[in-house]
Amino acid sequence: IRAQVGRDRVILGLSGGVDSSVAAALLHKAIGDQLTCIFVNNGLLRAREADTVREVFGRHFRIRLQYEDATALFLRRLRGVTDPERKRKIIGRTFVEVFQTATRRAGKARFLAQGTLYPDVIESVSFKGPSATIKSHHNVGGLPDWMDFELIEPLRDLFKDEVRKLGTELGLPDSLVHRHP
Q1: Closest by Cα among 111, 103, 106, 109 to 4
Q2: Helix (H) / strand (E) containing 112
Q3: Long-range contacts made by residues 146-150, C-beta under 8 angstroms, separation at least 24?
Q4: How buried is residue 39: exposed, middle or buried, by Cβ count under 10 Å (0-12/13-18/19+)?
Q5: What is the mean pLDDT of the chain?
Q6: 96 SS3 class
Q7: What pLDDT, in 10s, does the model give residues 50-62?
Q8: What is the side-by-side strand order in the sheet with 150-152?
């Protein structure tokens, strides 16, 4: 990570889930204050999720954490929508919009980090031609051209059990590392 990043800055979209949390802890251990995590509250989180993320990463690990409360925007756009895939697309578009605005406020960064795991890569590739939509919320195929970042995915070759072990080694709380998706 240090060799890839050098002295440049990295932004990571921190969801509070296992994968992005372990990626955040790993990147912070490697590059310290060169990392800025952006946590977007979409109003669809677990009870007290936003407080937990702010406590663990902001206060405990002292990771530079930018909190974006976009609850009202997400809930307004989702009002009345019942189709699950349509919901995922609305959430994805809204997240990108909020995140893009947040990255401008966070300052210039060369890299965007993601908590992509090996199963995400496998589930996003079709070997037999067109298939059903799988994991539409992952950006496994790279970033859109309009995003001016290079991608860094430090967990890309790992399975979930390996990520959990790494999270434990990095000192993340068991309640976060062993949570159910």
Answers
A1: 111
A2: strand 111-113
A3: 147/100, 147/112, 149/11, 149/109, 149/110, 149/111, 149/112, 150/110, 150/111, 150/112
A4: buried
A5: 89
A6: helix
A7: 999 999 999 889 9
A8: 64-69, 35-41, 10-13, 111-113, 150-152
How far apart (Å, rounded) are the C-alpha atoms in residues 67 and 49? 12
The token pair at 128 is 């037999």
Nearest to 26 by CA among 43, 4, 47: 4
112-130 mean pLDDT:
77
Residue 127 CB-half CA count within 13 A: 3
pLDDT, one tens digit per residue, over 8-40 is: 999 999 999 999 999 999 999 999 999 999 999
**35 DSSP 8-state letter:** E
Residue 146's pLDDT band (cuts 50, 70, 90): low
